[in-house]
Amino acid sequence: MNLFKASYREDFGHEYYVQILNLSKHFPRPLKRRSLLQFSVSWNEYASFPYFQLNMGSNGLLGIVFWVHKFGFDADICARTWDWSYLENSDENFDSANGVA
Description:
The structure is a single chain. By secondary structure, this protein is mostly beta strands. The chain has one domain. It has 1 helix and 4 strands; from the N terminus they run E-E-E-E-H. It has one helix spanning about 85-90, and strands at about 1-10, 15-20, 35-55, 60-80. Strands 1-2-3-4 form a 4-stranded antiparallel sheet, with no helix packed on it. It is globular and about 40 Å long. The protein starts with a strand and ends in a 13-residue tail after the last helix. The relative contact order is 0.19.
């Protein structure tokens, strides 16, 4: 269990993530791989139309997505933990000559 985790990711722009009270895979099923609060702030290379989305249920209690031009903000409460560790090895395993992984 992590009390606080902050990270940075670069994918079509700059994204900063903060996660509070992450539960690991060793907890019982309903709580497995969940975060009490997680949010991200991003600045993207490509502009988009203004966008607002509010989710309740499915993945967590409450989810908010907000985008204006190149600025984005995402927040989740009691939702499944964001994890991009599987992407770290995908570039190494990709065969560019054949276009297959």
